[in-house]
Write a structure and sequence with these properties.
alpha/beta, Rossmann fold, seven-stranded mixed sheet
Length: about 220
Amino acid sequence: MTPRSFLLTPELSDYVRACSEPPDDVAADLLAETAAMAERGEVPATFQIAAEQGAFMQLLTAALGARTAIEIGTFTGFSALCIARGLPANGSLLCLDINPDWTAVARRYWERAGVAHRIELRLGDAHESLRALPVAETFDLAFVDADKTGYPLYLQHLYPRMKANGVVLVDNTLRRGEVLDPHTEDERVTAGLNAALVRDARWETVLLPLADGLTMLRKR
């Protein structure tokens, strides 16, 4: 299982990866272990972000000069690994997730990559974890990749906690194209959120056709 954009053929996906920063041994092993877990039915195959998305997120984190980051939905830790690698040595990433088994895999690879000291993992309901944070402009970067129906509220929690010009990345905002004709609750919420964000004057918004859609928000 190699995650790829539904917009690309397998051949174009291979080309995109070949023309992007490749995963090193640690990231490649994490992707391979997660793929094997998915093949055994231990994790959902659709939860893993694509390697090229991870490369983009690592580059963006570094380019922004982000020092404080937060992630909602960590899974087996590849996205967090990429963000943490883009942070400076004294940077910090707060990860919110609910699954101790999947994040145990993440912890192993963070340790192996030498970035575990930059990452704090909090297990539990992410909405409660967010509400417990100080309402202060804290984060330079956020990544949201959790339950899709929770996205609108996650963004409400995040807005006052993002610094001015802070960037939020919202994953899966194309829903494999189903946002054009949504049928499920997840798809309807995503389509509604996309429409609301582009009208929300608090954010500068662009929906990138990367992987399954990645919306980038800048706090004005």
